[in-house]
Specification:
The longest helix has about 35 residues. Helix content is about 70%, strand content about 0%. It has one domain. Helix 1 packs across helix 2, helix 1 runs antiparallel to helix 3 and helix 1 runs parallel beside helix 5. The chain is an all-alpha fold.
Length: about 130
């Protein structure tokens, strides 16, 4: 027998919880654009390094050779960073799923920034070793 004094419960979600707020969407777009531009920058730098070394008819250092070999990965990562953003704008997703998507966008932005720092460090060490 059900308790007569308990309020009825519904399986429907509260419509106020379905929106994250405009600020979250703006931050997500900015993070995705920055991370995609960082990945594109890494792609273009590796391509320019390859052009510079081939113009002098010298061999690429091992680290740069690996980066040049897999430079298309930077473009793929840049394009993949748009995927959670496109899913974030779907209206049918629950608040919990949207908040997880936002967290994944922030994580991908942090990883792009860390990857860029590591990329800088490798290039800096390479320039010190060759100088």
């Amino acid at each position: 027998m059900t308790e007569p004094y308990l309020p009825p419960k519904s399986d429907l979600e509260d419509p106020r919880e379905l929106n994250l707020g405009l600020g979250v969407y703006i931050v997500a777009v900015i993070i995705v654009l920055l991370s995609a531009s960082l990945y594109y920058w890494m792609y273009s730098v590796t391509t320019k390094f390859m052009d510079v070394f081939t113009s002098f008819n010298t061999e690429l250092p091992a680290v740069i050779a690996v980066l040049v070999e897999y430079r298309a990965l930077f473009l793929i990562l840049g394009l993949l960073s748009f995927m959670p953003l496109s899913l974030l704008f779907l209206r049918r997703l629950s608040y919990k799923v949207k908040s997880r998507l936002f967290k994944s966008i922030v994580l991908s932005g942090v990883l792009a920034f860390i990857g860029t720092l590591a990329f800088h460090w490798v290039l800096y060490e390479l320039m010190i070793d060759t100088a």
